[in-house]
Amino acid sequence: MYVDTVVTGKLVHKPWFLALLTVIFMLVLMPFNTGAGFMGTMLEPALGNPELSGFIGKISTAFMIAFLLSLNIFVISILPQNAQLPVIWIELAIAFFSTFAAFHLSLEFIQSKIWIILSKGLFTTIYISVISIALAFVLAITGAVAKLSSNTFAYGIATFYTSVFRGIPLLVQLFIIYLGIPQLGYVIDAVPAGIIALSLVYGAYMTEIFRAGIQSINKGQWEASRALGFGFGKTMRRIILPQAIPLIVPPTGNQFIAMLKDSSLVSVIGVWELMFLARTLGTRDFRHMEMLVTVAVIYWIMTMILETVQARIEQHYRRKSR
Known about the structure:
The chain has 13 helices and no strands. With 322 residues, the chain is mainly alpha-helical. It has two domains: 11-87; 107-321, Orthogonal Bundle (MetI-like fold).
């Protein structure tokens, strides 16, 4: 986080801004039946039955909720800065999970199914994602080097590869590999088909990331290393890639996170990963929301773990570059 060294008055401390914020919140809340909620019950002594208070009750409850939201923002702004972030996260998490209360989720049902989701679905998702990112990494390095090559054939193949696999939706490629190739006499199982599709698509995206990272290194370093007698491979390993990796890591980490979530698409061809199990178990007992929320939280947790790992790797390379 960059700290502004210019000291100015905080916008949320200005009365006109808080008033404007309250009006905006109230306008957003007006279409909803706020009188039927907690605030309507709290104001019942003054407004009467929330169901019968009509427009006056709706606008009154909307104003009170908007006022409390603006007051909450003001209170958070006067807390110490190191306390503001945890408070914001806690409040947003409570608001986020409170929205699911309207679905009357069955915790007992989630507990009865969580083990099969973790033991089968989570393992399959991680397995597919790790192998796919490893293959995509190899394709990306090869493709990036080919796109930077003076060899016309290598350059042509690499540019055609990135154009095709970035231009066709992942789901379409998945069906072509799993359902189309068997028409040629080669039957591919669902898991290998998913891995191939993910690897080819994300290899194409990462090729551009690697190419941009390598090209960001001053061309003079390449020419100097070649003048000293370094071969192509040694120049890339010792000179170019060590400097390019710190630039490549952040977008590559983002691609891995995206791939982890896009692996849910392989559920359409019957792979027993998280999304497939969520749909299957939810349909069997007509408890779709329980399974979807469970899987959503699992994906969210995995994403936060990967974001933490990515941040540590970035810090490591920043320390090495100092």
